[in-house]
Specification:
Catalytic activity: Couples ATP hydrolysis with the unwinding of duplex DNA by translocating in the 3'-5' direction; ATP + H2O = ADP + phosphate + H(+)
Bound molecules: adenosine-5'-diphosphate, zinc ion
Family: Belongs to the helicase family. PriA subfamily.
Radius of gyration: 27 Å
Largest sheet: 7 strands, parallel
Binding site for Zn(2+) 2: 386, 389, 404, 407
Helix content: 25-40%
EC number: 5.6.2.4
Subunit structure: Component of the replication restart primosome.
Distance between the termini: 54 Å
Length: 674
């Protein structure tokens, strides 16, 4: 008996949704993994639940290859999620489905997989220790949990660092586990998983917990994924890719730091794991908790509209408070022409010295790594540009290199100016390396450490640097936004934002929202308990002391900041009051890329529900000798935008051959960085 089956496969996008018909001799339920011929290759596929696109007669269908019969089929809910994500982010179903499975799964045959499964079945039962007595809930935590249990609308758990959000996640997870369900917990950063994993493992000693993130070995990722899929793991903790874990008994979804941009995938299928988590929970009829001190304005607006519930944790556990915020007006500093402003204002230096005397720690936030962002020749004006990008190469003093942070192009620092031979080429501006160096001079004897992408390259480097901070071996910690996130420092009583101004005037309309979140998060590193809070301060060094953002920060007033941002967004017709898609084009020349976008825009003409902005270069337009141009498409209606995109993309595929020299194009739905 021959059956016609639809199989999701990774096809080049223009061949349709990526579901093709094959013939099979055995019953293969939807969700079965198998191999099928595609062109001259054999590729992995998944039996899908809908007819394929193929318009061929049964007799002409190609036979499907061997199935991974040992693996229980992927469930209907999982396939619905994939199908939704593919449609929403304008990708093929097959591409989406296979792209989010552990890569190892596509390599194994049925025998190899059966062997892995047999090994898993033999996993020893856990070393079932006594679960610790959880702390009694605060009134706010109890109220949050009670409200969560009442309804099904997504819930924003709104509270600063140390307000007890994780304890609420633990209790909500406990309830799901007691109902015999699985809990999925998403965090923005791989670095934050071990910390959270340890807390969950300690709370649920008898339960199996697995993590899913891109730093796992392929074998480990498959093993963990299988445990979630088989239902033997009760808790799944991971970064954005974990939103696609197969969870047959899903009972709770948590998204910690829901505002964090790293929940958005920035290549391939550019999905938002936060948004998919909300969709998935809704589809499964289970609660979803979005935790943040500074919710994304999308989430906050939904709270205002009554579509999401807000569970407030207004107080820090143990009587802590946010540190007092003080703003220093940098224009008050006397300044010589051509000389960089000092790294730190006098009252900030005093504050640092006070901490040193008291044996407390300080955190200095500077979102720019390297020694100096550019080298310049004092004679002829030469600057250390990257020959391949429209960007400066950054001076790294430690290894005396000039490095491009966009394409990676690295050279030794020249001895003299390449243009005029002048020996006096000097760094301009300041990065974390230089700040660290200057601090060692300004604060003799202080132990100054630096944590950024450069200092943490080696395996385990971040962990060892963090533990040095925790152990009190560091007095002053200099770092990029990496250090502002999540890490539970207990000895910090001073936080300094060294130079936060650039975000105030960035072309990206989300820059102020990000800066506010970053500063709140950094501030949250200090003042964890009442005693510490009394001595905690946060200093902002700025040339724009009157800016509304800093005024709101001083009052720790997220709501006021959000309201003013939402007003601006409303009048400018920006998200969350409109919906965006970004079409990016890359070519050897900007003309070719722009011509493609112009042709794409012409296709959208006359469609009333859609607005198309003129093509513009992004902030860094040339990277690795490729020119980039982008174009925003906007609509007041999400469904209208979706309908438009679904029709537009096939037309863009058809358009492409006419644009010689076009290297790549891609559409980003709900883009975060524009
Ligand atoms: P957040 O996730 O908001 O940063 P946590 O849940 O980590 O907050 O709580 C901060 C600290 O307070 C942690 O050390 C935690 O163990 C403790 N804590 C949380 N809830 C309570 C509670 N109800 N009683 C006592 N301590 C608590
Ligand atoms: Zn010169
Ligand atoms: Zn470059």
């Amino acid at each position: 008996m021959t059956k016609r089956i639809a199989v999701a496969v990774e096809t080049p996008q223009h061949t349709g949704v990526g579901v093709l018909d094959y013939r099979a001799d055995t019953e293969l339920p939807p969700g079965t993994l198998l191999r099928v011929p595609l062109g001259r290759r054999e590729v992995p596929g998944i039996v899908w639940h809908r007819p394929g696109d193929t318009e061929v007669a049964d007799e002409a269908l190609r036979p499907a290859g061997p199935a991974l019969a040992a693996l229980p089929p992927l469930g209907e809910a999982w396939r619905r999620l994939v199908e939704f994500a593919a449609a929403y982010y304008q990708r093929g179903v097959g591409e989406m489905a296979l792209g989010v499975l552990p890569p190892e799964l596509r390599k194994l045959d049925d025998v190899q997989l059966a062997r892995r499964l047999a090994k898993l079945a033999k996993l020893a039962p856990l070393p079932a220790g006594e679960a610790p007595e959880p702390p009694p809930l605060t009134a706010e935590q109890a109220a949050a949990l009670a409200t969560l249990a009442e309804g099904t609308a997504p819930a924003l758990l709104h509270g600063v660092t140390g307000s007890g959000k994780t304890e609420v996640y633990l209790r909500a997870a406990e309830q799901a586990l007691e109902r015999g369900q699985q809990a999925l917990v998403l965090v923005p950063e791989i670095n934050l998983t071990p910390q959270l994993e340890a807390r969950f493992a300690a709370r649920f000693p008898g339960r199996r917990l697995v993590s899913l993130h891109s730093a796992l070995t392929p074998a480990q990722r498959l093993k963990n994924w299988l445990q979630a899929h088989l239902g033997t793991a009760d808790l799944v903790l991971g970064t954005r890719l974990a939103v696609f874990a197969s969870l047959p008994r899903l009972g709770l979804v948590v998204v910690d730091e829901e505002h964090d941009p790293s929940f958005k995938q920035q290549e391939g299928a550019r999905y938002s794991a936060r948004d998919l988590a909300v969709w998935r929970a809704h589809d499964a009829g289970v609660p979803v908790l979005l935790g943040s001190a500074t919710p994304s304005l999308e989430t906050w607006q939904r709270v205002q509209e009554g579509r999401y519930r807000r569970l407030a944790l207004d107080a820090r556990i143990g009587g802590g408070a946010m540190p007092r915020v003080r703003v220093f007006d940098m224009s008050r500093l006397p300044r010589e022409r051509g000389v960089d402003a000092p790294a730190l204002a006098p009252p900030v230096l005093d504050a640092l010295r006070e901490r040193l005397e008291r044996g407390e720690q300080s955190l200095l936030l500077l979102n720019r790594r390297g020694y100096a962002p550019v080298l310049q020749c004092g004679e002829c004006g030469w600057k250390s540009g990257c020959p391949h990008c429209s960007a400066w190469r950054v001076f790294h003093k430690a290894d005396r290199t000039l490095r491009c942070h966009h394409c990676g192009f690295t050279e030794r620092v020249p001895r003299a100016c390449p243009d005029c031979g002048n020996q006096d080429i000097a760094p301009v501006g300041r990065g974390t390396e230089k700040l660290q160096e200057q601090l060692s001079e300004l604060l003799p004897g202080a132990r100054v450490a630096r944590i950024d992408a450069d200092s943490t390259k080696g395996v385990g480097a971040l962990e060892s640097q963090l533990s040095a901070v925790h152990a009190g071996e560091v007095d002053v910690l200099v770092g990029t936004q990496m250090v502002a996130k999540g890490h539970d420092f207990r000895r910090i009583t001073l936080v300094v934002a060294v130079n936060p101004d650039s975000a105030l005037f960035a072309s990206d309309f989300r820059a102020p929202e990000r800066l506010f979140a970053l500063l709140m998060q950094a501030g949250g590193r200090a003042g964890r308990d009442a005693e510490q809070a009394a001595r905690s301060e946060m200093w902002i060094q700025t040339w724009n002391p009157k800016h509304a953002l800093f005024a709101a920060l001083k009052r720790h007033d997220y709501a006021a900041f959000a309201a003013s941002q939402l007003d601006e967004r409303r009048s400018a017709g920006l998200p969350p009051f409109s919906h965006l898609a970004l079409l990016r084009a890359e070519a050897k020349t900007a003309e070719v890329a722009s011509a493609f976008l112009d042709a794409a825009a012409a296709l959208a003409e006359g469609i009333e529900t859609i607005g198309v902005y003129p093509p513009v270069p992004p902030a860094v337009s040339r990277v690795a000798d490729v020119e980039r141009v982008q174009m925003l498409v906007e609509s007041a209606s999400r469904p209208a935008l979706q309908r438009f995109l679904a029709g537009w993309l096939p037309e863009l595929h058809a358009l492409r051959p006419a644009h010689k020299g076009l290297i790549r194009w891609a559409v980003d739905v709900d883009p975060l960085a524009i």
